[in-house]
Amino acid sequence: MKTNELITVVNENGEKVDLQFIDAISMNGNEYVIVGPKDSDEAYAYKSIITNGETEYLSIGKGQEFKNVLEKYNRS
Q1: What's the pLDDT tens digit per position in 15-41?
Q2: DSSP character for 15?
Q3: Is the CB of residue 42 less than 8 Å from the CB of residue 52?
Q4: DSSP string, 21-76
Q5: Is residue 20 helix, strand or coil?
Protein backbone atom coordinates (compact mmCIF):
# COMPACT_ATOMS: atom_id res chain seq x y z
CA MET A 1 0.00 0.00 0.00
CA LYS A 2 1.20 3.51 -0.74
CA THR A 3 1.15 6.24 1.90
CA ASN A 4 -1.23 8.45 -0.09
CA GLU A 5 -3.75 5.65 -0.68
CA LEU A 6 -7.24 5.97 0.81
CA ILE A 7 -8.84 3.02 2.53
CA THR A 8 -12.36 2.61 3.88
CA VAL A 9 -12.59 1.66 7.55
CA VAL A 10 -15.46 1.03 9.96
CA ASN A 11 -15.19 3.47 12.88
CA GLU A 12 -16.22 2.93 16.52
CA ASN A 13 -19.78 3.97 15.63
CA GLY A 14 -20.05 1.38 12.83
CA GLU A 15 -19.82 4.06 10.12
CA LYS A 16 -17.65 3.66 7.00
CA VAL A 17 -15.00 6.38 6.67
CA ASP A 18 -12.28 6.98 4.04
CA LEU A 19 -8.87 7.61 5.62
CA GLN A 20 -5.35 8.00 4.28
CA PHE A 21 -3.03 5.00 4.73
CA ILE A 22 0.10 5.79 6.77
CA ASP A 23 1.68 2.44 7.63
CA ALA A 24 1.04 -1.27 8.27
CA ILE A 25 2.16 -3.22 11.33
CA SER A 26 2.23 -6.94 12.13
CA MET A 27 1.92 -7.83 15.78
CA ASN A 28 0.98 -11.01 17.68
CA GLY A 29 -0.22 -12.71 14.50
CA ASN A 30 -2.50 -9.80 13.56
CA GLU A 31 -2.20 -7.15 10.88
CA TYR A 32 -2.96 -3.50 11.62
CA VAL A 33 -3.03 -0.31 9.57
CA ILE A 34 -2.24 3.17 10.78
CA VAL A 35 -4.47 5.69 9.03
CA GLY A 36 -5.59 9.29 9.44
CA PRO A 37 -7.67 12.05 7.91
CA LYS A 38 -6.04 13.61 4.86
CA ASP A 39 -3.87 16.65 5.68
CA SER A 40 -4.09 16.00 9.43
CA ASP A 41 -1.68 14.95 12.17
CA GLU A 42 -4.30 12.62 13.70
CA ALA A 43 -3.79 8.88 13.36
CA TYR A 44 -5.84 5.79 14.19
CA ALA A 45 -5.10 2.07 14.24
CA TYR A 46 -7.42 -0.51 12.69
CA LYS A 47 -7.16 -4.30 12.62
CA SER A 48 -7.05 -5.82 9.12
CA ILE A 49 -9.31 -8.84 8.76
CA ILE A 50 -9.91 -10.82 5.57
CA THR A 51 -13.54 -11.90 5.17
CA ASN A 52 -14.69 -13.74 2.04
CA GLY A 53 -11.50 -12.70 0.26
CA GLU A 54 -11.95 -8.99 1.03
CA THR A 55 -9.94 -6.96 3.53
CA GLU A 56 -11.96 -5.21 6.22
CA TYR A 57 -10.57 -2.70 8.69
CA LEU A 58 -12.10 -2.78 12.16
CA SER A 59 -11.64 -0.18 14.88
CA ILE A 60 -9.65 -1.33 17.90
CA GLY A 61 -10.68 1.66 20.00
CA LYS A 62 -8.26 3.34 22.40
CA GLY A 63 -7.64 0.51 24.87
CA GLN A 64 -4.60 -1.68 25.48
CA GLU A 65 -4.56 -3.16 21.96
CA PHE A 66 -4.33 0.38 20.51
CA LYS A 67 -1.57 1.31 22.98
CA ASN A 68 0.43 -1.79 21.99
CA VAL A 69 0.11 -1.00 18.26
CA LEU A 70 1.04 2.65 18.84
CA GLU A 71 4.08 1.66 20.88
CA LYS A 72 5.31 -0.72 18.15
CA TYR A 73 4.67 1.95 15.47
CA ASN A 74 6.68 4.52 17.40
CA ARG A 75 9.62 2.07 17.71
CA SER A 76 9.78 1.43 13.97
Answers
A1: 888 999 999 999 999 999 999 988 888
A2: -
A3: no
A4: EEEEEEETTEEEEEEE-TT-S--EEEEEEEETTEEEEEE-TTSHHHHHHHHHHHH-
A5: strand
